[in-house]
C-alpha cells in the first residue's frame, strides 16, 4: 500500500473491537465508532470454545484469556430433579478439539481487546451512519455528529439491529423473534460448590457455571411471546419458573437481587443474508448472522469473523465466501438446539431425555459431538507467539 489504509469500525462490542485489533495488526489505521458513552458491554459472561480461543491466538491474547478464564470442568446436562442425562469434562474437550471450553465475564474480554488498539482509536458517544458504501473507484463514507469519515474499508459491527445491514440489504426481512426469552446474572454465591451444568425442563432451561473470580454465572430461557416482562421483578419471575429445580439453582436465586437479573427476548436472522459485504463495507458478528445463544457461538463466530476479515480485507468477496456458509450452518444448528432444549411436549421430552441418557451410555462424548465442525476450526493464518508480536 502506498499509504496507510484506513478502516472505520461501527460498533465497539466484542465483534467490532476484535475486527479493529485484527486490522490494526495488519498495518491499517483503525477508528472504532461506538454510540454508547463507554465500552461497557451489555450482558454477563461469555463462553469461549477452542475455535474462538484460536482466533484470539491470532490477536496475541489467547493464552492471556485462557489464564483469566474459569475452566468448565466436569459438567453436563440434567433434568429439573437433578438427574444427570449426560456428562463431560474439560480434559475430554481439550483432547478432542485441541483446547478447553472456558468462561469469563464479557467486560474482561472487552478490556483486553480494547487494550490492543492504539490510543485514540476508539471514539465513544459517536453515533455513526453509513452514507456511501463506496466501490472500486471511491472510498466508503461514514457520517458522525463530529463530521464525516472516508475509509478504504467500513466494518459494520453494529449488532442485531444493524442500520448498516438495513442500508446495504433493504429487502432483507431483518431479525425475527426466536420464540423465547432469556435471563442472565453474574453474582457471588457464598459456599456454592457444584459442577457446571445445563438443565432442560418443559419449555424452560437453566445453566449454572462457576467463574474463576468466585462468582457464579447463571442463565435461563423459557418460551414466551416477545415484549413480556414480570409484573413485579425478574428475580420473582425466575423463582416462579425455576425455584423448585435442583441445587444449586435455589441457592443462586436466593443470592440474587432483582437488579442483578438481565432479561432479553431472543431474536435472530432466520433468513441468511445474500452476502456479508457490499462495496467497501463488510458485516460481521450479530449484524451478519445473529443466532440463538443455545450453542454459545454468537461471540465465538464474531471472533472468527474478525480474523478472517483481516485476512481478506482487500477481497471482501473472499471474506463472504469463507464466512457465510460456515456461520449459516452454525446458526441453523443453534436453532435446532434451541428447539430441542425448549421442547414443550411432555411425550417429546420423555423421548428426548431417554434418548440422550441411552446414547450417552454408549457414547460418553455425546455433548462434545455437538461441537464437531465448530470447535475444531482453524484460523486462516498462524497465531502470534506470546510476547513477540511475530508470527
Outline the fold blueprint:
Layout: E1 6-10, H1 14-25, E2 29-33, E3 45-48, H2 50-59, H3 62-68, E4 70-71, E5 75-78, E6 84-88, H4 90-97, E7 102-105, H5 106-114, E8 122-123, E9 129-132, E10 140-144, E11 147-151, E12 153-156, H6 163-168, E13 176-188, E14 196-200, E15 204-210, E16 215-223, H7 234-242, H8 249-255, E17 262-268, E18 277-278, E19 281-283, H9 286-289, H10 298-311, H11 316-341, H12 346-362, H13 366-369
Parallel strand pairs: 1-2, 1-12, 2-8, 5-14, 12-19
Antiparallel strand pairs: 3-7, 4-7, 5-6, 9-10, 10-11, 13-16, 13-17, 14-15, 15-16, 18-19
Helix pairs in contact: 1-5, 1-10, 2-3, 2-10, 10-11
Features:
single chain, 391 residues, alpha/beta, six-stranded mixed sheet, 13 helices, 19 strands, 34% helix, disordered C terminus
Describe this protein's structure.
The protein has 13 helices and 19 strands. The chain has 391 residues and is an alpha/beta fold. A hairpin with a 2-residue loop joins strand 18 and strand 19. The radius of gyration is 21 Å and the shape is globular.
Name the beta content range: 15-25%
Overall form: globular
Low-confidence stretches: 384-391
Q: What class do helices, strands and sheet pairing give? A: alpha/beta
What is the mean predicted local confidence, pLDDT?
92
Provide the spatial order of strands within the biggest beta sheet. Answer: 6-5-14-15-16-13-17
Number of helices: 13
- What is the CA-atom radius of gyration, in angstroms? 21 Å
Number of strand elements:
19
Q: Mind summarizing the main beta sheet?
A: 7 strands, mixed
How much helicity do the residues have? 25-40%
State the separation between the terminal residues, measured CA to CA.
21 Å
